[in-house]
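DM from R.C. (forwarded with permission)

"hey, sorry to bug you on a friday — could you get me a structure for this? deadline for the figure draft is monday and I only need the backbone to look sensible"
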Amino acid sequence: MKKFLALVLFLAVAVIYVPWLHPAKADQVNVYQDNQLVKSVVFKIGVPEYVLNGQTPGTKMDVAPFVENDRTFVPVRFLGNALGISNDNITWDNNTQTATIKGTKATLQMTIDKAQVVSNNQAKTIDVAPILKSDRTFLPARYVAEGLGYQVAWDDATQTVVCWPTGEDKPDVSAAVDYLVEKNQDTQTTTDYTDVNGYRMPLDTDLHFPPAKTVDMSILVLIYKPLDKQYEDLNIVLKSKFDSEIVDQILAYTKQKTERNQEILSKKWTVDEYSIEVASLAGDTGISIIVRDI
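My reply, with the result:
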């Protein structure tokens, strides 16, 4: 009897500790963005904004995702950030035209016009290649997300891409999808604006936009034109890309000059990868707002 009990005990312990007696589970890697666990990310075609963990308003991008060759393309830095990768772990080699993304699960490398993804030095052929468009690098969202440990789903009806950690059930992102669909409808039904470099630009405005080949955006508020409408338009332009709190500070500083003989000393704000500078010399007829990549 004692031998029988010992055998039963041995088998019970074996069931607990022998791995092959248990169903296999998918590898699961927790990824964080700004110390926040990434549970879901939603992108929508044509909307320069993504929603992380269902939190709205979302994070603005300077360009919108688009579809080419039946694949969704997203700017490399925003795609990496959305999936929990810091800017320090996203690099670009201009000589080889290669983007490198270092994640907790893998290090991915993708080269412009080369239909392959290199994961931890292992090359895999894919059906599309990264694209260089308007000096911006766009990567196929599915292959990057899957390489970094995410599952990916495409909803053709809403033109949205959803990413969530491998090994977990697909989260309910209906509220995030509804939010992005509404944002897209707002853009489509508004004919008085155009999109320039990710900024929502009013077509009928007294604001002046000097050529900006070496900066992200250059704006002049003209002192000799009605100021209230210009500030309304400036508010729309800046808030299409930056948070309300920063934009409110910029507008409050800019509004200090109401006459040509007044001076506004140069002041800068740093927001993510951008520097925003406001300045106007005494005698200038305009107040300059310049946005630069840093």
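R.C.: lifesaver. The helical segments are 2-17, 76-82, 141-147, 174-189, 227-239, 244-254.
me: no worries. Residues 54 and 234 are 29 Å apart (CA to CA).
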